[in-house]
Write a structure and sequence with these properties.
Distance between the termini: 60 Å
Structural class: alpha+beta
Number of strands: 24
Bound molecules: manganese (II) ion
Number of domains: 2
Shape: globular
Strand content: 25-35%
Length: about 400
């Protein structure tokens, strides 16, 4: 099916993509939209036209909401029916006369945070990243901790500071380690990014009921590129023994677009390999990895190309692990992969690794001597994956600009 939307066929936002977001136009309330080509489809208004095949019309009130939350709550069966309906509406040209007036050019919309983030968990699933960080933070110890290949390590982050792409990020202040052993207080000198993939949870579960790896697609609606902004000096001082805290919680940026898992079927790949074999509850049968290519863009220049396919732990394993103790899922839960880093230097997903703890400044095409983020820097994460139509689909990008530290509290 080619689809009738001008410019969509063969683009990165063709019928095999169809990400969901929340948008508004001047003077209107935010509501759910679906991206096709360089347009956003007014999902509720199109559903309200009625008369089409499928269940789309029943979703008009759900998509009139200012968030995806109600839609996320409906679960896999409805998500799949909705996608079939979207493909019919945007693919079959009998619908063009009625639907085309309900497409808004992408440059006329303002995008909003796509859902209310319930709980936020961040993992640490890249062996290359964990190895690099281990070597940088603990040069005298083993790079990987003894537990690393037995479970996907994670921590609970701060849901309330997950912000949508385009939100400025103020440089955090806090306690910074000093050589004498007594910390100083002030703006972070080692502000960093982490290129990650976020997973958006829909169907909720009951307290006490673990989610097996096989139920991953029942509970995860889709993905969103995610930047886990990190203050390395604050983090290095505070993280032992309870893990990340203020070095992470000041801001986490997500794309305004949530790409359905159903758009990533052609991107599924085998994991790189797990040795030792994980415990029973962490075993996966089918290809559990995703072949998604990331780009880290600093002030308009690509500085790294992290490959998601290199990740050691799969998202189905992350989900099984975060619920194995009976912790329940809520609609809007967000869990992230951890920094994506590949084997090569130009595949590292953080500036900590690109500059090797600040000791090996790196160059961009037009600058040199870069280590950590400077005030005014803009970081954008882009990602693409193989699509079902043979081309590549784009995941919505996530961008943010660093503002100087606040003067308050100093
Ligand atoms: Mn992270």
């Amino acid at each position: 099916m080619r689809g009738w939307v001008t410019g969509a066929a063969g683009s990165a936002y063709d019928l095999d993509n169809l990400p969901y977001g929340v948008f508004s136009t001047p003077g209107t309330d935010p509501r759910v939209g679906v991206r096709i080509g360089d347009f956003v489809m007014e999902a509720s208004a199109v559903a309200a036209l009625g008369g089409d095949a499928g269940e789309g019309p029943h979703l008009a009130p759900v998509w009139a909401q200012a968030g995806l939350d109600e839609f996320l709550a409906m679960g896999r069966t409805v998500w799949d029916i909705a996608r079939e309906w979207l493909v019919e509406v945007l693919g079959n040209d009998v619908h063009q006369p009625r639907v085309e007036p309900l497409l808004v050019p992408i440059d006329e919309v303002t995008m909003h945070r796509p859902f209310e983030v319930a709980d936020y968990v961040d993992f640490y699933c890249s062996e290359q990243h964990a190895t690099n960080v281990g070597r940088i933070f603990r040069p005298d110890g083993e790079a990987l901790t003894p537990n690393w290949k037995h479970l996907p390590i994670g921590y609970h982050g701060r849901a309330g500071t997950v912000v949508v792409s385009g939100t400025d990020v103020r440089r955090p202040s806090g306690q910074r380690p000093e050589s004498g052993g007594v910390p100083s207080y002030g703006p972070s000198r080692r502000l960093d990014i982490e290129a990650e993939l976020g997973f958006v949870v829909g169907g909720a579960t009951q307290l006490g009921e673990p989610v097996p790896t096989s139920a991953f697609t029942d509970h995860v609606f889709g993905v969103t590129p995610l930047n886990d902004w990190s203050a390395r000096d604050i983090q290095a001082w505070e993280y032992v023994p309870l893990g990340p805290f203020l070095g992470k919680s000041f801001a986490t940026s997500i794309s305004p677009w949530v790409t359905p898992l159903a758009a990533l079927t052609a991107a599924r790949v085998e994991l790189p390999g797990q040795d030792p074999e994980p415990l029973e509850y962490l075993r996966v049968q089918e290809p559990a990895g995703y072949d998604i290519d990331f780009e880290v863009v600093l002030n308009g220049e690509v500085v790294s190309r992290p490959p998601y396919a290199a990740m050691y732990w799969s998202p189905a394993q992350m989900l099984a692990h975060m619920t194995v103790n009976g912790a329940s899922l809520r609609v809007g839960d967000l869990f992230a992969s951890g920094t994506i880093s590949g084997d090569e230097r130009d595949q590292r997903g953080s500036l900590l690794e690109l500059s090797w703890g600040g000791k090996e400044p790196f160059a961009t095409p037009t600058t040199s001597g870069r280590t950590f983020l400077e005030d005014g820097d803009t970081v954008t994460l882009r990602a693409t994956a193989p699509g079902a139509l043979g081309g590549r689909i784009a995941l919505g990008e996530v961008t943010g600009t660093v503002l100087p530290a606040s003067q308050a509290g100093r």
